[in-house]
């Protein structure tokens, strides 16, 4: 199988939105509103400062994606690239799709002068944690907190 990883185009938005809906259900049993996620995905294409998506294709068929967003670190005077919204279609799993996307984004980040890559993972998702560790990522010593705001 031939794997190609490319920067997503707005024409990929519907695939990406569907994959996000599937990922939220698989990982958290959370139902996302299709209209909201559709607007959210397109907002990344409308405002490049928000980040960018990568799409993976196996033999020319789109099978997965990830989102990269940025976090400025004043301590390191550089950007961390956050890997988010990772999804690989069930039929394409265990074929190196995420590994290929991760290698691609790592090369891009190094070329852009980023200071590191970060991602978050569900505490129960041991398979994903093992995958990330196998790629050389390390568990950091931070907990994540959030305060949802009405918007």
UniProtKB/TrEMBL annotation:
Sorted UniProt keywords: Transferase
PROSITE patterns: GNAT
Residues in N-acetyltransferase domain copies: 3-151
Domain of life: Bacteria
One Gene Ontology term of the molecular function aspect: acyltransferase activity, transferring groups other than amino-acyl groups
SUPFAM superfamilies: Acyl-CoA N-acyltransferases (Nat)
InterPro entries: Acyl_CoA_acyltransferase, GNAT_dom
The keyword Transferase is assigned to this record: yes
Pfam families, A to Z: Acetyltransf_1 (PF00583)
Identification of the protein by name: GCN5 family acetyltransferase
Originating species: Luteibacter yeojuensis
